[in-house]
């Protein structure tokens, strides 16, 4: 645990550079490949500044003042970092501002020019123009909008006391962020008491899954230890000692916001980055001997922290229940649905393992032409069911490339179930997706079918085969 | 008492889902999802276990808050323990048991349920359930012979059960209506001929539903 220097008590907003790799952070469930790439990104950035902090998957931050002086200014530094990351084949955007919050927004806002530098002292003005929707506490943002407070500037203009009185600690933090005053004031840590937690694996654990489960318990233990002293931490260091004695460590942003499950998710990602196999493939370094979580920059907990990173508030009771089930069935067995964009009913819901960041795979924003209109089906098969659709004469109903149906569907037989009489139908509605992509390209013709048992079905013909995608009941 | 959508109140004794009770729906579908909607919208966490094909978009359209929903699509052989854990964390759990639940397993889960003051919705059979719901008739509007599209489904839902729920209640519902919601339907205004859902072999020639193209 590293105590803050005494002079850090004087509020001085540091210059922070945030590097954001859209290709790594705009994924619903960043996989092992993304984790490995991110490790390489951090290694590249470490060449410019040794103290790099992972903020969330695909996003890292570091203090820009020193390295900028060395590399000839913030813009020059950002250009070099982006060039170094480009050598890994990744696009990156950089934002520099006073404080992490503004730097994150700057990196997010960097457009055609991949670097957005908010000059020292101008951060408050930059923040003032941002809509309140940039606050990840969407409930609060919605409330502020309804009250006519549309920008962070509107919010910052209110007296701090009024905001705290009306919106509680969440509003207080938002007000502070909106005014460019950064996170809650850092308070010197108590005497160097070791609040880190560790778990030894004997024999060393070669697989990621058991380590991640241990990490959840460790994270809870660490949070309990901090909470018992009224503390929380700004970041947390994940340390792994390997069977061959090597040590790997990485600093992750915490801000008192990560639940135990979310922290375990970070550990999972980190292990992916360090190439700990998820399944039984052999490993040359003999596995993990010790996993340690070290709270870094310990501060007084101010009660309610603002959910900056879009982690929905999950109560302890729910988190405990979900983690107990994950312990029984595996991490991927407990899922949270995230509605998003897409054309299929199945693809429009992204399933994210509990404890990981909930973001849809496809954005809900753009229009998705080719969607089936009308009410959503209550039954959506995760894997479409094979079916035979035949006409009155018993011949398979086919669809030509020009969407001409060979005959009216008369019978529907799903997956070996007894045939159902078709009493109504409509289609084909052609849908051709990702035609530019040879592997992912799909051409489908969709139908709605009604059968004599009162049920309605969403069917598709793809490569000459009939598939049942959903049922309306 | 956990709240339900206004259209479903008439089917349940005292107009809601009694805490600590088991409510069954004969088959998983929109009706089961609709029973979750109001409680979820009011802030309850919902767990859905053993139903990989649960249509989340339909549920969200009814009012389910996806942010407060946990899915355990495949609870496996240990499903009673999984459901017990979910009941500890969620006020409302929708379960389709993978197999027939032995009486002992049911009693243990019911005890957990009474302790945690949650509600267990079962898609399927659960002897001893306080309320049982089933769809006996349904018909769609909007789809013709090669034209139109599905618009709305009128369903006749029957509820019975034990104790307060012993009286059989019957309601016609739009399930869903054209906008995806579940509302009370006026039987007189339903443009489909009624016809029992079950008990008729699929091969038997039956009178076709008279479907009116609502477009």
Question: Can you offer a commentary on this structure?
Answer:
The complex is a heterodimer of chains A (473) and B (215). Chain A has 473 residues and is α+β, with helices and mostly antiparallel strands. Chain A has 3 domains: 7-178, Alpha-Beta Plaits (2-Layer Sandwich), CATH 3.30.70.270; 197-300, DNA polymerase, Y-family, little finger domain (Dna Ligase, domain 1); 379-471, no CATH class. Chain A is 29% helix and 27% strand. Chain A has 12 helices and 17 strands. Chain A has helices at 22-25, 32-46, 65-71, 74-86, 100-109, 123-128, 138-146, 152-156, 160-178, 208-228, 260-273, 316-329; strands at residues 15-20, 53-56, 59-63, 93-98, 115-117, 197-205, 231-242, 247-253, 288-300, 335-339, 349-353, 379-390, 411-414, 420-433, 442-451, 456-462, 465-471. Chain A has a 6-stranded antiparallel beta barrel. A 5-stranded mixed β-sheet of chain A has the order 2-3-1-4-5, sandwiched between helices. Chain A has a 4-stranded antiparallel β-sheet with strand order 6-9-7-8, with helices on one face. In chain A, β4 (93-98), α5 (100-109) and β5 form a beta-alpha-beta unit. In chain A, α2 (32-46) packs across α11, α3 crosses α4 (74-86) and α10 (208-228) crosses α11. Chain B has 215 residues and is of the alpha/beta class. Chain B has a domain at 6-123: P-loop containing nucleotide triphosphate hydrolases (Rossmann fold, 3-Layer(aba) Sandwich). Chain B has a 9-stranded mixed β-sheet with strand order 3-2-4-5-1-6-7-8-9, sandwiched between helices. Residues 193-215 of chain B have low confidence and may be disordered. The chains are: A alpha+beta (473), B alpha/beta (215).
Indicate the topology:
The complex is a heterodimer of chains A (473) and B (215).
Chain A (H helix, E strand, L loop, with lengths): L14 E6 L1 H4 L6 H15 L6 E4 L2 E5 L1 H7 L2 H13 L6 E6 L1 H10 L5 E3 L5 H6 L9 H9 L5 H5 L3 H19 L18 E9 L2 H21 L2 E12 L4 E7 L6 H14 L14 E13 L15 H14 L5 E5 L9 E5 L25 E12 L20 E4 L5 E14 L8 E10 L4 E7 L2 E7 L2
Parallel strand pairs in A: 4-5
Antiparallel strand pairs in A: 1-3, 1-4, 2-3, 6-9, 7-8, 7-9, 10-11, 12-13, 12-17, 13-14, 14-15, 15-16, 16-17
Chain B lengths: L5 H4 L12 E4 L4 H12 L4 E4 L6 H7 L6 E4 L6 H11 L2 E4 L7 H14 L2 E5 L7 E13 L4 E14 L7 E6 L8 E2 L31
Parallel strand pairs in B: 1-5, 1-6, 2-3, 2-4, 4-5
Antiparallel strand pairs in B: 6-7, 7-8, 8-9
Helix pairs in contact in B: 2-3, 4-5
């Amino acid at each position: 645990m590293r105590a803050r220097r005494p002079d850090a008590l004087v509020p001085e907003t540091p210059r922070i550079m945030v590097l954001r790799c859209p290709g790594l952070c705009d994924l619903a469930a960043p996989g092992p490949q993304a984790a490995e790439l991110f490790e390489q990104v951090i290694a590249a950035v470490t060449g410019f500044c040794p103290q790099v902090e992972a903020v969330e998957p695909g996003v890292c931050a570091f203090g820009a003042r020193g390295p900028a002086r060395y590399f000839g200014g913030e813009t020059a530094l950002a250009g070099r970092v982006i060039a170094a990351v480009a050598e890994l084949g990744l696009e990156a955007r950089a934002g520099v501002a006073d404080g992490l919050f503004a730097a994150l927004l700057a990196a997010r806002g960097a457009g055609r020019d991949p670097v957005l530098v908010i000059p020292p002292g101008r951060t408050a003005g930059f923040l003032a123009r941002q809509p309140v929707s940039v606050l990840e506490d969407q409930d609060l943002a919605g409330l502020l909008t309804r009250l006519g407070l549309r920008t962070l500037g509107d919010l910052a203009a209110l007296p701090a006391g009024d905001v705290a009185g009306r919106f509680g600690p969440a509003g207080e933090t938002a007000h502070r962020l909106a005014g460019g005053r950064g996170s809650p004031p850092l308070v010197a840590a108590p005497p160097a008491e070791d609040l880190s937690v560790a778990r030894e694996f004997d024999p060393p654990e070669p697989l990621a899954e058991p380590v991640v489960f241990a990490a959840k318990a460790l994270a809870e233990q660490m949070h309990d230890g901090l909470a018992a002293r009224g503390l929380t931490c700004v970041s947390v260091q994940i340390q792994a000692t390997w069977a061959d004695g090597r040590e790997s460590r990485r600093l992750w942003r915490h801000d008192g916001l990560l639940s135990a499950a979310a922290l375990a998710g970070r550990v999972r990602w980190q292990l992916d980055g360090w190439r700990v196999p998820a399944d039984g493939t052999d490993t040359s370094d003999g596995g993990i001997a010790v996993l340690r979580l070290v709270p870094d920059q310990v501060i007084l907990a101010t009660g309610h922290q603002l959910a900056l990173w879009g982690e929905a508030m999950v109560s302890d009771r729910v988190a405990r229940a979900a983690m107990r089930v994950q312990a029984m069935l595996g991490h991927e067995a407990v899922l949270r649905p995230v509605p998003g964009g897409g054309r299929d009913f199945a693809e429009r819901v992204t399933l994210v393992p509990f404890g990981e960041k909930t973001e849809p795979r496809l954005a809900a924003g753009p229009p998705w032409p080719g969607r089936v209109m009308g009410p959503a089906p209550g039954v959506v098969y995760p894997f479409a069911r094979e079916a035979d659709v035949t006409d009155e004469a018993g011949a398979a109903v086919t669809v030509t490339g020009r969407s001409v149906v060979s005959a009216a569907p008369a019978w529907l037989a799903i997956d070996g179930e007894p045939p159902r009489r078709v009493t109504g139908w409509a289609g084909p509605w052609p849908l051709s997706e990702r035609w530019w992509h040879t592997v992912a390209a799909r051409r489908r013709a969709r139908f709605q079918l009604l059968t004599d048992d009162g049920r309605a079905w969403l069917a598709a013909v793809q490569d000459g085969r009939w598939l049942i995608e959903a049922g309306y009941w | 008492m956990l709240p339900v959508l206004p259209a479903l109140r008439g089917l349940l004794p005292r107009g809601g889902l009694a805490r600590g009770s088991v409510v069954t729906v004969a088959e998983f579908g929109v009706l089961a999802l609709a029973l979750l909607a109001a409680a979820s919208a009011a802030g309850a966490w919902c767990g859905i276990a053993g139903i990989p094909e649960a249509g989340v978009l339909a549920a969200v359209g009814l009012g389910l808050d996806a942010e407060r929903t946990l899915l355990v699509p495949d609870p496996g052989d240990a499903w009673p323990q999984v459901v017990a854990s979910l009941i500890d964390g969620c006020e409302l759990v929708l379960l389709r048991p993978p197999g027939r639940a032995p009486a002992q397993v049911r009693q243990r889960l019911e005890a957990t349920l009474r302790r945690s003051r949650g509600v267990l919705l079962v898609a399927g059979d659960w002897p001893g359930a306080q309320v049982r719901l089933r769809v006996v008739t349904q018909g769609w509007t909007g789809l013709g012979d090669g034209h139109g599209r599905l618009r709305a489904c009128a369903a006749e839902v029957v509820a019975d059960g034990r104790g307060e729920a012993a009286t059989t209640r019957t309601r016609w519902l739009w399930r869903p209506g054209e906008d995806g919601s579940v509302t009370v339907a006026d039987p007189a205004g339903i443009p489909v001929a009624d016809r029992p859902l079950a008990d008729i072999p699929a091969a038997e020639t039956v009178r076709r539903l008279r479907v009116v193209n609502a477009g």
